[in-house]
Amino acid sequence: MLDVIGERGTDFTPVTFGIAHTGNVEEAEALKQEIIERLHPKDIIVSYMGATMGTYAGKDGMIISFYS
Fold first, then answer.
1. What dotted CATH number matches 2-67?
2. How far apart are the C-alpha atoms of 66 and 68, rounded to whole Å?
3. Over the stretch 18-66, which tens digit does the pLDDT of each residue have?
4. Sequence spans of domains, the chain
């Protein structure tokens, strides 16, 4: 997943990432650390996913979004 994101650009220092999860806090935090190490973003917000998106993401699902 991070390889695909890396193909979208080379400078992620002005970018804020969002990680939404359905209850798997440990995996979301591990992903956050990997994003920090590989892409060096401006910020990363980790939060719980709402019910509608969680229905589609399923158990232990995660969504990654980013914008600059």
1. 3.30.1180.10
2. 7
3. 999 999 999 999 999 999 999 999 999 999 999 999 999 899 999 999 9
4. 2-67
